[in-house]
From TrEMBL:
<keyword id="KW-0808">Transferase</keyword>
<dbReference type="InterPro" id="IPR029063">
    <property type="entry name" value="SAM-dependent_MTases_sf"/>
</dbReference>
<dbReference type="GO" id="GO:0005737">
    <property type="term" value="C:cytoplasm"/>
</dbReference>
<keyword id="KW-0949">S-adenosyl-L-methionine</keyword>
<feature type="compositionally biased region" description="Basic and acidic residues">
    <location>
        <begin position="398"/>
        <end position="410"/>
    </location>
</feature>
<comment type="similarity">
    <text>Belongs to the methyltransferase superfamily. L-isoaspartyl/D-aspartyl protein methyltransferase family.</text>
</comment>
<keyword id="KW-0489">Methyltransferase</keyword>
<protein>
    <recommendedName>
        <fullName>Protein-L-isoaspartate O-methyltransferase</fullName>
        <ecNumber>2.1.1.77</ecNumber>
    </recommendedName>
</protein>
<dbReference type="InterPro" id="IPR000682">
    <property type="entry name" value="PCMT"/>
</dbReference>
<keyword id="KW-0963">Cytoplasm</keyword>
<dbReference type="GO" id="GO:0004719">
    <property type="term" value="F:protein-L-isoaspartate (D-aspartate) O-methyltransferase activity"/>
</dbReference>
<dbReference type="Pfam" id="PF01135">
    <property type="entry name" value="PCMT"/>
</dbReference>
<dbReference type="GO" id="GO:0032259">
    <property type="term" value="P:methylation"/>
</dbReference>
<feature type="region of interest" description="Disordered">
    <location>
        <begin position="388"/>
        <end position="410"/>
    </location>
</feature>
Amino acid sequence: MAARTEMVARLEEAGDLQTGAVRDALLALPRETLMPQAYVRRSAPDEPPRWELLDWSRPDDREELLGLLHSGDSVSIQHEGEPILNRAPGVRSGGAMTAMSSTMGMTADLLQRLDLRRGQRVLDVGTGAGVTAAVASFICGHNGVVTLDIDQHVSEAARARLMALGYQPAVVTGDGLSGWPELGPYDRIFVSFAVPRIPPALVAQLAPGGRALMTLGTSSPSWPGLAVITRTPTGAVEAKLVAVEFGHRRGAGFERLFLSAAFRKQIAASEGGRTRPSRLEPPADTDRGMWLALDHLHPGLVRDRSAEDLTIGAPRCGSWMRARPVGHRRWEVTTFGPRDIWAEIHYVADRWLAAGSPHTYRLEIDADGAQRVTSRCRALCWTLTDASHTDTGATGEPDPHSEKGDSHAH
């Protein structure tokens, strides 16, 4: 209980959690019951992965597992699609994590935005460890909660562990993009993996007065948007896309763009790069509406968050850029490859400024299935498609050291 209280206090101090029903639910939730086993990585990020499965039933694991579960970080619970119940603890080598519980700061923020209330019908898409289902059951009552996952092993484990908490929501297995119409419509729909466009089936299952939340973005993880879809009491659908700092990753069946270790080393070495001075200042990290627009208008880019300077790569064609300050309003910009990423950034930045520097965009969903994102004055807009702008090739091969997109995020 002390670890739980400390985690909640940290979330409050960070501004991710306020007084209310979600806070009460997290204080009441014994995470070790939902996640009696969890993986910890024992290898360095750029080394072949080696994972150890900690187990609550082993006294020697309890202190480390308790710290992991209440650290606020994401918690990996499944390796390579394995059965979760009745598995032996120990070390796994290679492969990737295929189900997890997302970072608690993001989870708490999104659950509060969902505005859960007693008696609501809730569809939780992407069961994962069952945190969202447990919180929804605590607040709304489990009789109205449906939690859906594509992996039967994940569903089976969540059902057993939610029952151990005294909750019996409907735990079902299926394609999250199709929802679960049998028990709809729903007052709240929560999707815990990123999608390239709004799934029409989920919109159709939203009840009048209902609200749906999901991360919307390209195959790049760098600049997510939060889609907020509502259905008015008269049945009209209204939606907006909010540029946010953190979002869920793409789920099962969606490719995910990344900068491989080899590509990052190439950028650091600056081999063949062209360096030029510039008095143009890069947009601030907090100009998230601009970066979100860049991600859609010039897709295929990933930012290296570990780099000291602004560093962005395009793995498909091998292009990259790095901008470092060298004095007052003076920058040294190094670029490589067929794409001039620096020019792309400033092209979009100029359009974003002309559009009024929007942080939130209108998301238009037509009856014929077309989906568009537009600024208020329509000076900046783009169309959403199912196309995945995933980069492949010599510098974009699947990274054996990375985790897959978490289709089972909560």
